[in-house]
Amino acid sequence: MGEAQAMALARMLRGRVWGHKVNDLLLRAGREVIPRLKAYGKVFCDAKLHDIPHTVAHQVRVLEEAGADLITLHCSGGAEMLRAAVEARRGDARLLGVTVLTALSEESAQAVYGRSSGEQVRRLSILALQCGLDGIVCSPADLEIAADVDPQRRLLRVTPGVRPRWYGEPDDQQRVLAPADAIRAGADLLVVGRPITNAEDQEKACDLLVEELSA
Hints:
Layout lengths: L2 H11 L5 E4 L2 H5 L3 H5 L4 E8 L3 H14 L3 E5 L4 H10 L5 E5 L7 H8 L3 H15 L3 E3 L5 H7 L6 E4 L19 H6 L4 E2 L3 H4 L4 H13 L1
Parallel strand pairs: 1-2, 2-3, 3-4, 4-5, 5-6, 6-7
Helix pairs in contact: 4-5, 5-7
């Protein structure tokens, strides 16, 4: 989706959603897209930062200065990187630690981490707490683990892999839940992309999602 399409969608959904997630559009349009999106709601900057501590600290400052409300970074970058990111922050942007990507199957998780996806989510959620992050990004299937690690809800729980019951298109997401089920499981914010962006009538798709949650 190009910048013009993204702005049109954000304008259409203004007031219906908490905010708008930007990922590859950062590469297409640069950080200047962040303040433009803020005209239509909060901005979730899904940068998934993962580099040496100095570099990540600089990237956090750049994105925060541009107006990002949420910024993601990979917990697997390690404690030193996460703490550098926290120390670099100067304003109100909240830092979210990505745990295990929702596209990873159990087989893939074992190959990458040498342990189950659930155990990896547990380890990285604990690390996020220890390093002072504001929240985590985890699949709906891992919300129970997040609740066990953080019963006091110090971490915001942001959940991708949300698929409405009426959305039947196959995609690369492996560990998913319906929106209402994710909320009941403890999600604070739902990340919903393709069920809306791929819809012929995007406004109607958003309204259907709201109706499903309300019901």
